[in-house]
Amino acid sequence: MEDYLYLSEGESEDSTLLAIYVKISNDECVVSLAFCHLEDHRFLIGQFIDSSLLPNLETAILQLGARECIVPSGLLSSDTNVSKLKSSDKPGRLQYLELVLERSNVLITELDRAEYFTNDCLEDLNLLLKQNSTSTSIDVPNLFHAKSELAEAFLCLGAIFRFLRLQSNEALAHTFTISCFSLDNHVRLDSAALNALHLLPTSSETESKYNSVYGVLNHCRTPQGQRLLAQWLRQPLTDVARINERLDLVEAFVDDSSLRNTFHETSLRRVPDLPRLARRLQMSKASLQLDCV
């Protein structure tokens, strides 16, 4: 299944996969999720409370930029036009889940429940995680503690492992990082706000770059730069220190036009899509003629 997520040459979208599980607890929806970014080799896990309309889940999907979402079979509702939770049907089956996923333009894939609820992901996770990585916010010795706190999120992570068969690929051993996902790290946007602000282009728009904020701002020379710009537009910062850090970098390039022109007109023109090329090499799919010349 990983072939589906490894995009063809020339595409600029990220290769991402989301797994979610939603259950009802004390009249609230508890959403657990795991996220895999294949090019950046990182995992995110998280859990949060949501209402029956699942606005927080919609925000999470947009922030993460997920292209595909896997759910356990039987979780999706067959009727998305009713606003209430089913109280007499399967636990955790929500009326609005499928609607939120479709509104977010996410490909929905149901995974057999036996594959989803297999509690054996820690061994595979230890195989995939970088050793002594400073960018990993969950230390490997604390994984057992984190697993007890985020049990359903780790089930989602295990579902991603089995869906992509990551643990069977030796080239991916000790290359991933893992951290906790929090909705509070960025401004919360739903699909209505994203469309109203015209932040990102839609498939129905014309080729004019002025139809979206992304089109106006996109002067990126590299595909990885285009992907990062789209990610930043989906994830507006709330931390003042990080905002000022970005503004300082912008100011440096604005003040030094010579440096800016050197990077934009000369240096970056020679930079290939390194994350995607590295991924192709790991998967033994690189072509010497096409990728290395």
From TrEMBL:
<dbReference type="GO" id="GO:0006312">
    <property type="term" value="P:mitotic recombination"/>
</dbReference>
<dbReference type="GO" id="GO:0140664">
    <property type="term" value="F:ATP-dependent DNA damage sensor activity"/>
</dbReference>
<dbReference type="InterPro" id="IPR036187">
    <property type="entry name" value="DNA_mismatch_repair_MutS_sf"/>
</dbReference>
<dbReference type="Pfam" id="PF05188">
    <property type="entry name" value="MutS_II"/>
</dbReference>
<dbReference type="InterPro" id="IPR007696">
    <property type="entry name" value="DNA_mismatch_repair_MutS_core"/>
</dbReference>
<dbReference type="InterPro" id="IPR045076">
    <property type="entry name" value="MutS"/>
</dbReference>
<dbReference type="GO" id="GO:0030983">
    <property type="term" value="F:mismatched DNA binding"/>
</dbReference>
<dbReference type="InterPro" id="IPR007860">
    <property type="entry name" value="DNA_mmatch_repair_MutS_con_dom"/>
</dbReference>
<keyword id="KW-0539">Nucleus</keyword>
<dbReference type="GO" id="GO:0005524">
    <property type="term" value="F:ATP binding"/>
</dbReference>
<dbReference type="Pfam" id="PF05192">
    <property type="entry name" value="MutS_III"/>
</dbReference>
<dbReference type="GO" id="GO:0006298">
    <property type="term" value="P:mismatch repair"/>
</dbReference>
<feature type="domain" description="DNA mismatch repair protein MutS connector">
    <location>
        <begin position="17"/>
        <end position="131"/>
    </location>
</feature>
<feature type="domain" description="DNA mismatch repair protein MutS core">
    <location>
        <begin position="192"/>
        <end position="287"/>
    </location>
</feature>
<dbReference type="InterPro" id="IPR036678">
    <property type="entry name" value="MutS_con_dom_sf"/>
</dbReference>
<dbReference type="GO" id="GO:0032301">
    <property type="term" value="C:MutSalpha complex"/>
</dbReference>
<protein>
    <submittedName>
        <fullName>DNA mismatch repair protein MSH2</fullName>
    </submittedName>
</protein>
